[in-house]
Amino acid sequence: MSDKKKEALEAEIRTYVGKPIGPPVTGRDPVNEPMIRQWCDAMGESHPAYLDAATASDTVHGEIVAPPTMLQAWIMEGWEMHEGYDEPKNEQHRLHKLLNDNGYTGVLGTNTEENYTRYLKLGETVTALTVIDSISEEKATGAGIGYFITTVTTFTNQDGEDLGNMSFRVLRFKPADGGASQAASDGGGEAAVAQKPSRIKPPYGHDNGWWWEKVAEGDCLPIQRCADCGKLRHPPRPMCDACGSQNWDSIEASGKATLHTFTVIHYPQFPGYEYPIISAIVDLEEGERMASTIVECAPEDVSIGMALEMLIQEDEDGFKIPFFKPAS
Ligand SMILES: [Zn+2]
């Protein structure tokens, strides 16, 4: 991209800072028990203050309240809002489309921070206003060069009372590997375009690097095991939550699993992935639960509780990752 073109792009993206992405969004349903119950089921939350009216009446709240961490759930919109950026529906979409059209085709959620002011009561209506809070200077990152975009959402009830807020930061970047999008947007040569972007790699940290190495070397799905009490744990972490021991080894999972729950991801589409993605939580035969992807199965054929078997997916660049397919 020429300096002049880049200057113009930067000037244009700066005009988005401080803008609400659109009008405030009000939740489709007031705070209600069925949604609280479903959320608690999904999260494995069993506190009676959220679920049992008789017990809840003896708490400081005097009645059932919603878990504060559910805040964003109350304003979740339907599928129709998320059909990509081809026809931007709000200022955030317009900003992302602008960057996408200029070669910043990758998107990576980097961090989110939520603050909860208080518990929500049944019958309250939640309204959210999201503002594009800041856009960083162009940064060089492991994923590629790009801009960090931070939005801040404030939540209020029907009387305008503050319920909390959430900041959400994404990196909009030009994929570093291949640079195909950069070449394409600059009218670059065929060779560069032919090099496809690949899956975003997980960070190999002190606590989890060994796990990815074992996957790659052994074509297996390792599960960390406490060397003192034998309890299994996943994802990998330094300490056993049963006995506190920091000694561990690992076993190889059988690869047999059942589907706990899933969602089908159509958008946003990151370069290097095939869509739709069936993103799943699976229950391993060994008793641990893990996030993975279902492959070799049409979304309409997926059902909760179905038997699965593991396979090691190997990408074109040699990266290996355990996925699951319907058991044969
Ligand atoms: Zn232990």
Write up what this structure looks like:
With 328 residues, this protein is of the alpha+beta class. It has 2 domains: 182 residues, Thiol Ester Dehydrase, Chain A; 118 residues, no CATH class. It contains 8 helices and 16 strands. The longest helix is centred in the first third of the chain and has 12 residues. The radius of gyration is 23 Å and the shape is globular. About 5% of the residues have low confidence. The site of zinc ion has 8 residues, from loops.
Give the name of the CATH superfamily of the largest domain. Answer: Hotdog Thioesterase
Give the helices and strands as they follow along the chain. Answer: HEHHHEHEEEEEEHHHEEEEEEEE
The percent of residues in helical segments reads 10-25%
Shape verdict? globular
Instruction: Output the structural class.
Output: alpha+beta
CATH class of the largest domain: Alpha Beta
**Biggest sheet layout:** 6 strands, antiparallel
CATH architecture descriptor of the largest domain: Roll
Number of strand elements: 16
Which ions, cofactors or small ligands are bound in this entry?
A: zinc ion
Q: How many distinct domains?
A: 2
